[in-house]
Structure formats: C-alpha cells, structure tokens
Amino acid sequence: MGGPLAAKKPMPVPVKKTPVTDRRRDGRIDVAAAIEGEDERSRSMASVRRARERERRQQELQRLRNDGVKVVREVVVPEAITVQELANRMAARGGEVVKALFRMGVMATLTQTIDADTAELVVNEFGHRVKRVSEADVEQGLTGTADIDTDLQVRAPVVTIMGHVDHGKTSLLDALRKTDVAAREAGGITQHIGAYQVTIAGGQKITFLDTPGHEAFTAMRARGASVTDMVVLVVAADDGVMPQTIEAIHHAKAANVPLIVAVNKIDKQGVNLDRVRQELLQHEIVVESLGGDTQEIQVSALKGTNLDKLQEAILLQAEVLDLKANPDRAAEGTVIESKLDKGRGPVATVLVQKGTLRQGDLVVAGAEWGRVRAMLDDKGRQVKEAGPSLPVEILGLSGVPTAGETFVAVENESRAREISEYRQRVARDKQAAAAGAARGTLADMMARVAAGVQKEVAVVVKADVQGSAEALVVTLNKLSRDEVKVRVLHSGVGQITESDIQLAKASNAVVVAFNVRATTQAREMANRDGVDIRYYSIIYQVSDDVQAMVRGKLAPIQREKFLGYAQILQVFEVKRLGKIAGCRVTEGVVRRGCGVRLLRDGVVIHQGELATLRRFKDDVKEVTNGYDCGMSFANYDDIRVDDQIECYETETVAAV
Ligand SMILES: Nc1nc2c(ncn2[C@@H]2O[C@H](COP(=O)(O)OP(=O)(O)OP(=O)(O)O)[C@@H](O)[C@H]2O)c(=O)[nH]1
C-alpha cells in the first residue's frame, strides 16, 4: 500500500530535481526545505521571464527602428545649405547625408553647399517634412509665414513709369520728385540712385523706380516690373499709343502688375483723348471712362497739372493691392542699380522689400557680401535704417552685385559666405555652360555665318553701368534671327579684363565695349589672340554692327586705331584756352587732331577731339612715349589729375 500512497505524496516531480542536500540521509524528503527550494526555483524562473521580456522588448524596439518608425521633423530648407547643416537640421549623421546624395548622383562633401531642391530631395529621403523659406526667415529662426505675417504694416507702393520715347517719362519723374515735401525740408538736393521716394502732403509715401526710357532699356523696365507694385503708363495725348507703349503694356501684363494710365501733355492744343482711349482699348486696356477698371489721369508733366490726382490714383491702387510688409525682421530686397565708385568702392542701390536694413548689417547681395558701412537715401542723407519700400544706396559690399539680384541681411559671416559661395558657383556654372558651345576664330565665324553653316554670333558685353549692360543684352538678344542667333556669353560692368578676352577667345566671341576700355594686359592679349574688341558709346551702333554680323557681312566700317595713352599729371588754368592738362605720354604716341577719350578708372568720361597739343610753348604734331606735353580738349574741361587720355584715329576697314 505504501507504494501508491507514497506515490501520492506531494511534489513527487520536484523531488527528482531536488538537490541532494534537500534529501535526508535516510532518503526521506524534508518538506520545509522542499518548499524553500520551490521559492528559489520560482524566483529564478521569474527572472528568466523578465530577462526574456526585456530581450523581447529590445528586439521590438530594434524592429521598429529598422522599420523607420521615428520622429518626423520639419526641416527648414533655405535657398542654399551646407551638407553638414542639413544633416544637423535632420538630426542625422553627416556621412548618411553624403551617402544619400551619392545615391542621387550628387557628389558633395560635408562642407559643400547644395541648393534647396537637392536638399528637399534628401529631406524627403530621410522621411522628414520640408519647409522652404527665404534666407532671412532662416536667419531669424522663423518657422513659417504665419509668424512673419503677424506684424504686417502698410508699406509705400513701388511704381515704375513706362511709356514710349519722348512721351514724358523723365519729365513726369522729375515733376513728381518735386512734389516731395521731405525733399523741400532737406533743402531739395536730390541725387540719382535709381529710385526715389516722395512724401506727399498727407504724409503718405510713394516710391518711384527711376528707370531710363529708351527702347533699348527694356531690360530695366522688365526688371522694374518685377519689383514694382504698379506701372504708370505715360501716353502723350498728342501722339497716342506707340510701339513702346504696347511693349510696356505687355511687360506690365506679364508681371501681373496693374496699370494706371497717365495721359500726358494735355496742355497741348487740340489733343484727342478719345483717340488715346480707343487705342488703349485695342490693347485690352479699358479705362474707367469706357467702363473698365484702369484708372486714367490726365496730366501735364511740363505744367505740373494733376500730379496730385495721379498720386491719389497710385495710393488708391495701393489700397486695393493691400500692400503690407513686416518691418521687424531681417531685411530682404532687390538691387536696383550698382556701380564701382572710385572713392567709395562698390555702391549698390537697393530697394528694401521686407524687414528693416540697418547700418552695420551683414548683407549678401547677389554673390557679393559685406557689412553695410553707410546708407544714403535719395536726398543724399545718411540714414541709419531703411524699412520696406525705401530705396537706399549701400556701401561696404565686397564687389558690385548685379542689378535685379536679391539681397538679404544675414546673421553671421559664415552664413554670408555660404550663400555667396553658392551663388558664385551657380553663376560660374551658368557661364561655363554658356561658354561651352561655340568655337573658332572671328573671321571663320563670319565666313561660316555667310555660308549658312554658323548659326550663332557670340558676344561678350562690358559696359560702364549695369543699366547699359542690361540694355545691350536685351538689344542684342533681339537681333537673333531664325537662321542665326545672337548669344551673349557674358555681360558685366567695368574695364575689359584678361578673363573677358579669355572667354571671348574660347568661344570665338566679339567683345562689345560700351563706354569702357580694356586694361593694358587685356588689350595685349586681345591683339595676340586675335580677339576683336569693339568700342561703342551709342547703343544703336552696337546693334547695327552685330546685326551685320548676323547677316554674315559687315559693311565697310569706321574702325578705330589705337594711338597711345597719356597720363594727366597736372591741370592748369590758362586764359582764353581754359583748362590744360599737363601730361606724360605713357604708351604709343599722341597726335594733333586725333580722337581722344578721357578715362577715369577705365570708364569713359568724355569722348571728343584734341584741341591743342604742345611741348613747352610750341604747338607740335605728335608726342611719343615718355615725353611730357600739354593737351586741351575741344569744348570740354572737366579734367583731373590721374585721369588717362586715350588717343585714337579712325580708319575705314573693308567689309569682312
Ligand atoms: N507740352 C508738353 N511737353 C512735355 C510734357 N512732358 C514732357 N514734355 C516734353 O516732351 C519731350 C520728351 O520728354 P521726356 O520727359 O524727355 O520724355 P521721355 O519719355 O522721358 O523720353 P526718353 O527718356 O527719351 O524715353 C521733352 O521735350 C519735354 O519737354 C508735357 O506735359 N507737356
């Protein structure tokens, strides 16, 4: 019996596992010890379970990680960003970003800058959300337009005046400038900086872009239309709608900018306003009196009639447009004009469009950057800050930015450098792409154009001011025909340098020099390499010449032959003769009766004829290199020490 009973004893199974110590020597089991052993066993099993659970959780976490379940960030992407910075913003490793770029076919190191589009692809690849913002927003740490919009304040409208040649744009701009009550307080001294702001009697302000009016300056007008809020279309009442009026209408329409018609010269006898309205109607400009919504104001720029009404119309239009900007943020805007000034270095007129620009701010304008050393308004006054819609001239940039490019105030130098380097790279790439196509020599080119083989005339344009450079580019581009295109490889401001010649040589281009000269090295290089530099001071002559090239045949042309250079060492005042320049001939020869150009920093200040050429008190025929002489110009005497005089003769060159 004992056997079965014994079998029913509690815990038969654990007995087997009970350690020897749990057994009595007599072979019977100690129950207390067995219970104790049970506790220990269950404890160890629980810890195993816990360890297993821990492991399971860890595996799950890893699996989740591997599945990419992670924090989705909103990554702020500016116009340009370094790979490292992008990685930081995504909280990712730099190497991973480099790898991702590599997979996308972009070879970039951590310090290299990539554009916003590439950055956006990377951000998407990493599963984050992209937020594209402007530089200023990033620098201010702003995260969305909502933040920017909270502090919007009314800003002055920016107006461009357009119209046909001689319809009175300049007269109207001048007349409007005179209505400025602020200028009167400042003593009425105004300076041309490419734009000006008037404060009218009620204290309201209007900004006018002071763009030139000739047809060839279409580019300036087009650029004006892109920063401008509205266009005042000047139509002379006695002349009506003309080709450039139509062009202006097209520009305004293309830029989606509203128009106000200013019918000018109403002081003239027998003008027919209905005719003007009907002509405008033909171009889909329906003025209010014909039931349309385009305001029409009749003015006389000459007599100053109805200028107040025109200003009211502008302000009314501004109200409709609800023009606002936040002045409390880093400044952003557009370069209106730019030049290299002898005493002041690079000077740019900028129109602030958002935020407030302050003296001392770090700005990137185009590919140039620098700290704003000084700011001047259109009255020539120093200003410490400039808010939205105010045009100011800024000093302190590293170089001359291109008109029409944007500027932005940034927080630190490294950011400024980053944006500037990126923009330079983009510009270089563009230039290289443009230069990469055409090859050959000029004579070959002309022959090939004539034979119908060459399909392109390449040109490098250098001009004294940005406005002229742009105007030339537009003029030249217009000369393209179906069979032969005109391609402007490069356009810039300032003297012709060796790099311009290099570019022209590589692409078999002609260098068009508009009111500028070549440096000595560039001239030598051009002679050596057979690059043709053509000097001009009138736009239509450029277009005539290039048009002839497009036809593959240059008419016999008056070509200049360079004679020599003289440096002005002293300036004397002589009775009856006016100012005489005491010079030393520094290169070549100077001849009596030759053509002369007065150059200041490689820019042509005056072009004319030599009136007198003397050595000591005697009139002489010519003076050669190394000798001193006295020179005076016919009908011109704004000469200064250090100016250079270029002497040339004109000769007729046979057709190519
Ligand atoms: N009678 C009259 N003549 C005017 C008026 N406004 C301008 N003019 C004259 O028209 C001519 C051309 O005027 P501008 O102001 O130079 O014309 P513009 O459109 O700026 O010309 P470009 O700069 O050459 O395109 C000048 O002789 C002016 O004196 C006006 O209201 N009445």
From TrEMBL:
<dbReference type="Pfam" id="PF11987">
    <property type="entry name" value="IF-2"/>
</dbReference>
<keyword id="KW-0547">Nucleotide-binding</keyword>
<dbReference type="GO" id="GO:0003743">
    <property type="term" value="F:translation initiation factor activity"/>
</dbReference>
<feature type="binding site">
    <location>
        <begin position="210"/>
        <end position="214"/>
    </location>
    <ligand>
        <name>GTP</name>
    </ligand>
</feature>
<feature type="binding site">
    <location>
        <begin position="163"/>
        <end position="170"/>
    </location>
    <ligand>
        <name>GTP</name>
    </ligand>
</feature>
<dbReference type="InterPro" id="IPR023115">
    <property type="entry name" value="TIF_IF2_dom3"/>
</dbReference>
<dbReference type="Pfam" id="PF22042">
    <property type="entry name" value="EF-G_D2"/>
</dbReference>
<keyword id="KW-0648">Protein biosynthesis</keyword>
<comment type="similarity">
    <text>Belongs to the TRAFAC class translation factor GTPase superfamily. Classic translation factor GTPase family. IF-2 subfamily.</text>
</comment>
<protein>
    <recommendedName>
        <fullName>Translation initiation factor IF-2</fullName>
    </recommendedName>
</protein>
<dbReference type="InterPro" id="IPR027417">
    <property type="entry name" value="P-loop_NTPase"/>
</dbReference>
<dbReference type="InterPro" id="IPR036925">
    <property type="entry name" value="TIF_IF2_dom3_sf"/>
</dbReference>
<keyword id="KW-0342">GTP-binding</keyword>
<dbReference type="InterPro" id="IPR000178">
    <property type="entry name" value="TF_IF2_bacterial-like"/>
</dbReference>
<comment type="function">
    <text>One of the essential components for the initiation of protein synthesis. Protects formylmethionyl-tRNA from spontaneous hydrolysis and promotes its binding to the 30S ribosomal subunits. Also involved in the hydrolysis of GTP during the formation of the 70S ribosomal complex.</text>
</comment>
<dbReference type="Pfam" id="PF04760">
    <property type="entry name" value="IF2_N"/>
</dbReference>
<keyword id="KW-0963">Cytoplasm</keyword>
<feature type="compositionally biased region" description="Basic and acidic residues">
    <location>
        <begin position="19"/>
        <end position="29"/>
    </location>
</feature>
<feature type="region of interest" description="Disordered">
    <location>
        <begin position="1"/>
        <end position="54"/>
    </location>
</feature>
<dbReference type="InterPro" id="IPR005225">
    <property type="entry name" value="Small_GTP-bd"/>
</dbReference>
<dbReference type="InterPro" id="IPR006847">
    <property type="entry name" value="IF2_N"/>
</dbReference>
<feature type="domain" description="Tr-type G">
    <location>
        <begin position="154"/>
        <end position="324"/>
    </location>
</feature>
<dbReference type="InterPro" id="IPR053905">
    <property type="entry name" value="EF-G-like_DII"/>
</dbReference>
<feature type="binding site">
    <location>
        <begin position="264"/>
        <end position="267"/>
    </location>
    <ligand>
        <name>GTP</name>
    </ligand>
</feature>
<dbReference type="InterPro" id="IPR044145">
    <property type="entry name" value="IF2_II"/>
</dbReference>
<dbReference type="InterPro" id="IPR000795">
    <property type="entry name" value="T_Tr_GTP-bd_dom"/>
</dbReference>
<keyword id="KW-0396">Initiation factor</keyword>
<feature type="compositionally biased region" description="Low complexity">
    <location>
        <begin position="8"/>
        <end position="18"/>
    </location>
</feature>
<dbReference type="Pfam" id="PF00009">
    <property type="entry name" value="GTP_EFTU"/>
</dbReference>
<dbReference type="InterPro" id="IPR015760">
    <property type="entry name" value="TIF_IF2"/>
</dbReference>
<dbReference type="InterPro" id="IPR009000">
    <property type="entry name" value="Transl_B-barrel_sf"/>
</dbReference>
